[in-house]
Amino acid sequence: MSRIAAISRFGQQIWLDNLSRQLIESGELARWIADDAVAGVTSNPAIFYNAIRNDPAYQAAAAELRQGAPDPEQRFETLVLPDVRKACELFLPIHEQSAGSAGFVSFEVSPSLADDAAGTLAAARRLWAEIDRPNAMIKIPATTAGLSAIADAIADGINVNVTLIFSPRQLAGVQAAYRSGIERRFAAGLPVDRIASVASVFISRLDALLDPRLPAERQGRSAIAMARQAYADWQALPALPGGARQQMLLWASTSTKNPAYRDVVYVEQLIGASTVNTVPDATLLAFRDHGEAAATLSADAPGRQDQLAALAALGIDLDAVGDELQAAGLKQFDEAFAKLLDLVR
């Protein structure tokens, strides 16, 4: 068993934070599944920008599409949605064997819709129908408008990956939106037991922002403390009606931004049952080489509480910091999407 596959013994799913035609057609994605028990895939505008820019197969197809579809966003979706479907098919056996709790492939609505609830919901419905796979997940950001769209999408029976969560307040809003959608769907007499959702909590960016404000002994500990507290709170969530699953916590942005830190720290320190960690290729390769799998997410409760108390004592408001990070993340995704559309324009 590989070091990556060993993580599954502790009940955590590892997803690959990457998707491209080359990844599928080369057999590399199938090897990640077979050799390392990778159980899903996430994507975002930056990932597809790099894929389209560097993959000759995409470039040739994009040139052909310029003769037809006039809208760059339509061209982009025509270009990549077949690969999203192929990835879904690769993961479908995992999805079926897990009774619908694993094997998901995430695709994001346009970042330009982040403050448009109706537009986000319309895009989620359209993408869900166009991908047309039971193990697809539509990514929606945890903005105020996004929360409204998330509740509506869940009520519609759409699997949702809620992205760009950076703080306890944002996470609580996401969990409330998910519960609202489930309860509305259940009240309408519709099945809720196969709906899946993840709440993607971004990890390394929090430490990158806070570390310069902290004494040396407090650096590199804030994101892990926040995530562990989120998991403790998640374990206390009340049951949902109709046999609905709880929305799983997903750790995102788990590559290490600070080269002084262990390169797999945000994988090793966040392993726990009924969670997901989506990891870029380079970090997965590092973990395959020297990562250590152990149940760490519930470890050292006093240390977690001490770090969070120290942040509060220093006047650091994690909710305010989270709003700052989310705004920066939205800007980053919006810029990546604009560059992406320029590639296919």
From TrEMBL:
PROSITE patterns: TRANSALDOLASE_1 (PS01054)
Active site feature: 139 (schiff-base intermediate with substrate)
Enzyme Commission number, as recorded: 2.2.1.2
Reaction(s) the record says it catalyses: D-sedoheptulose 7-phosphate + D-glyceraldehyde 3-phosphate = D-erythrose 4-phosphate + beta-D-fructose 6-phosphate
One Gene Ontology CC term in the entry: cytoplasm
Pfam families linked to this entry: TAL_FSA (PF00923)
InterPro entries according to UniProt: Aldolase_TIM (IPR013785), TAL/FSA (IPR001585), Transaldolase_2 (IPR004732), Transaldolase_AS (IPR018225)
SUPFAM superfamilies: Aldolase (SSF51569)
Location(s), subcellular: Cytoplasm
Chief location of this protein within or outside the cell: cytoplasm
Entry's Gene Ontology BP terms: carbohydrate metabolic process; pentose-phosphate shunt
Pathway(s) where this gene product acts: Carbohydrate degradation; pentose phosphate pathway; D-glyceraldehyde 3-phosphate and beta-D-fructose 6-phosphate from D-ribose 5-phosphate and D-xylulose 5-phosphate (non-oxidative stage): step 2/3
GO MF annotation terms: transaldolase activity
Keywords: Cytoplasm, Pentose shunt, Schiff base, Transferase
PANTHER family with a match to the protein in the record: TRANSALDOLASE
Cited function: Transaldolase is important for the balance of metabolites in the pentose-phosphate pathway.
Similarity-based family: Belongs to the transaldolase family. Type 2 subfamily.
NCBIfam families attached to this UniProt entry: PRK03343.1, tal_mycobact
Protein known as: Transaldolase
Gene that encodes it: tal
